[in-house]
Input
Amino acid sequence: MNTTTTQQKAALRDVHKDASMRKQKAMMGAHYDRLTAAPQTGEKVCSTFVPGNLNELIDCFGLVNNLPEVNAIQNGLRRISGQYVLEAEKIGHSEDVCTYVKSDIGMMAKGNIAPNGRPFPKPDVLLLSYTGCFTFMKWFELLREQYRCETIMLHTPYLGDGTVTPNMIQYMVRQLRDEVIPKLERVSGVKFDIDRLRERLARSAQAEDDLVYVLRSARNRPSPIDAYFGGIYYIGPIFGAFRGSEDALEYYRFLRAEVDERIAAGTGPVTPEGDMGAEKYRLVVEGPPNYTNFRQFWKMFYDEGAVVVASSYTKVGGVYDLGFRHDPRKPLETLAEYCLGVYTNRSLPMRIDMLSRYLEEYQADGLLINSIKSCNSFSAGQLLMMREIERRTGKPGAFIESDLVDPRYFSAANIKNRLESYFQMIEQRRSGAAHAA
Amino acid sequence: MGASLSMSDVATIIARATALFEDLDFSAAREWKSARPERKVIGYMPIYVPRELIHAAGMLPLGILGGGDQLEVIHGDAYYQSYICRIPRSTIDLAVSGRLDFVDGMLFPSICDVIRNLSGMWKVMYPQVYSRYFDVPQNYCDAIGGNYYVNELAELREALGHLRGAPITDEELRGSIAAYNDNRRLVRQLYEYRRAKPWQAPATEVYLLTRAGLVLPVEQHSQLIRDYLSAAAAAERPRLDNCRIVLTGAFCEQPPLNLIKSLELAGCYVVDDDLLLVTRWLSEDVPTEGDALQNLAHAFLHHSESTAARYEPDASEKGQHLVRAVRRAKAEGVIFACPSFCDPALLDRPMLQRVLREAGIPYVAFKYSENFGQMQPIREQAGTFADSIKLWSAQ
Output
């Protein structure tokens, strides 16, 4: 008995990863090394956000991209975000607000150590791409206090009426042309070259094609990917510091080939414990995951044969599967369109449409919402979204609650109970439908 | 009115304002609407909408600020998780319970993600009602944010014109700007009066009076303030040895009236606040000559209040509005009263507190919700704060 337990523990430690995951890990490692070496190499650092991330533009100026949300996620996955959140609360930040912010502030208070064990450099510029999340604005005002560096606001109007208007595009292009670019030139000392931007945008579009191919592969039965837990890995490079780079192109080509192999072999997603068993439930998931107990959370799904075939979280740094691609023919307009279209910048009716569509297109059994305590941008309105999507599609919804990087709000037993009840409900619906037939 | 005014006049005015405040069926607005068949009512939420445009369309702008502590939320909790603030759930409750069934349109200003998402919920729940998320620029350059805002205003103007069946004319708009200029001057005068003589204009009265401006036609509200200022000046009240404080953080979800009363009972004169900012958002008169939308945009960009929902591009200016408010009001401290789960107020608070520390201004902080009923801890906290200020200032 003891031997078995030990073997199981050993197996858990020996996490199974796709080749693409290992490749991404190496890319991330190299990026953190580059970032933390900036004070020695003289490279300048630009902090910005995932939604509305203008990586192509940042890279044009030779700036190294640092994403505080990704750092918070890393700290969540490494289970050190909890202490950072507490540290921020100790120094006066409310227990009610976003834990990404508090993880970041707490990390700064505790030495600002990157995942590679070296200190993060002070940013030379904060590019406040204010897209789809109110907290971003306050977050960078807070960081500006600490770093006292140039802070550039790029305001993305919200798609309240569900459409991108010429006024919105014009506003954003003017901000980019007259404020963002001149300030980035000043900080970096590099003159803006629109052709450099075009090259990067062209690469982005190619990588986006491959990403969409991968995400859409979940239409297969069984799905070769998990579009939420696995999807978080797949979006990493394109949502992070690599969009527009040769590395990203190569990564997505590689990932696409890997997914093709799985489709050809008829295999399901790779989980931390190897290939997933038989696919029993196909879900669409709305909302970010919990990162402090990420593997435990994922296990609750694959142990039950549940695979996520589409998710909204994998659209938070850009919605590509509805047709948008970065377009090098109109460089500034395309950056504006990209920012305007990210998931959290879309109105609730747009989000409802999108998720309803996913339920049908991916032949999902139902919608699961993971409602995040500290993310109002996602969470406010989700109960109505669930009811409306259930009404439209006739498919059952379920609601669980957790937090991004605050371990105090992850209740494993509670979530597991709800998931099990949900899977039973799906079974009952199926048997009801079978009897009716 | 003049010399004959007395405390009973103040009481009458405040009784009217209180009745308006307590009326969750919005009877006054319903009566206004029913007086003429073509009349329409446009609801709006905090912090700011250009009410001039609604007024110019011949419509009544109606401030919707949740249900306060008088509304038992029955339906609203089914729409929101426990960690979302209170104002959207009680607003939904007002709507679901039919209390807003006479409202012809709703504006949801750019203040936070919760109100932003509520705009989408409204579209799903009430597709037949005009509703709009009213975005404002976070870029304050005339050629960039200004142009964007002028076009947003033009879209709103067109939509309201469409709703009433005839475009809003320039003349109508200029007339409305003049009416609101007058109203804002009076609100500023009211605040100045309270700064000078807070014992003569208690915070609860100023609040109720200002709040009446969210349900009354602007002309009636202006007259109400005029009457109050005359009546208050004519009725001497005892001056207490209270400390003078600025109340901040309460710009969206409203504190219960009892909370404001409790601060006064605890020995604090509220000499400035950020309650109901829409009534004085624009700090200078908007010109009535020239292009009305350009004028409104210019006023918004260059002469409007600072608050957490607004980006401060100049790092050295961050929080200085609060320091200036303290200095202007000769206040001795600041009370941060923020709604629970309010992202703008709570994320801003540490930065404002840092600025106050650097300026040597004492502060205290607590949270509330609109239906919060436990005033004893508030009285104790505010009372201790007031006592400590008195002790410090005596040293």
Observations:
- The mean pLDDT of chain B is 96.
- The radius of gyration of chain B is 20 Å.
